[in-house]
Structures are given as C-alpha cells and as structure tokens.
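User: Show me a protein chain along with its predicted structure.
Assistant: Here is one chain, sequence first, then structure tokens.
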Amino acid sequence: MRRMIFGILIALTPFFAIADNPPPGPRVSIFSTTTDWAALTGLPLRQFSGNFKWSNSDVGRGLVLYYLDAFPCYGEADSVRVWLGQNRQSTGRLRLVCVHAPKTVSFAWRNATRDADQAQSTGILTCPVDGDYDFTIDISKCTYGPEWGEYK
C-alpha cells in the first residue's frame, strides 16, 4: 500500500510543480536597505514633510500615491501611501527621511476611492517639490510616466 501511495505521489509531482512555478526568470528577493546613508555621505539624516496641492480635475474620483524610495530620501513606513480625493479630502501625509531636501519625488499611482484595497498601480508619477523641510507637491505640475506594461 505504501508503494502504491508513493507511486501516485511521484506521478502527480510534475502537475503540482507546473501549477506552482512562476514564469521563467530569476527569482528576486526585495528587502529594505540596511545602508547607513548618513555615515556614507557624511550628511545627517533629517525629516521632511510633504503637503499636496490639487484640484478636483487632477484626481478624478481619487488618486492613490505610493512613494517610491530614491536617494536622497526614503519614506517612513507609515506615511508612504497617500490618497487624494475631491474637495481637498485626503488621507495620510508624506514623511521622508533625507540627507538633503528632494527636488523631485516619484510615486506609483492609480485612480481609486478612499477605502479601496491595495491593488496593482498604473505607473510612475514624478513631481517637482517646492520648499524645504515642509515642502509642497502640486499634482498639476507632475508628469505621468509610462504605465507598467510599457517597461521592458
């Protein structure tokens, strides 16, 4: 009986392997950086806060932004998702830790209502920054980059 069960399991193994295999290519592991940027650059890390400016036509039914970390700044974990909606409604506030004030910031974005679940974003939104420690991001001045499907 054990041989028969073992034989069935061996015979079915390729079917389970096919169902669980991701598309061909190397597996990638994403992890947070452990680099001490203050030590490497000789510049102290400071906190910066971003406020958003937008009109109803800039956000449609709602715009969800996910900050994309990039030197010289890294997002604080609890503030990297911001929702902007109609009539100046918003949730969240962007807080960054930087070695110097950013000149631009980039976000993954998608249109969604306030309480929508996290889902695949659409592409990159790159925005100029106005100010220093307490800076402003005017959504009307941002540039929409390619959508994710256009990246190769």
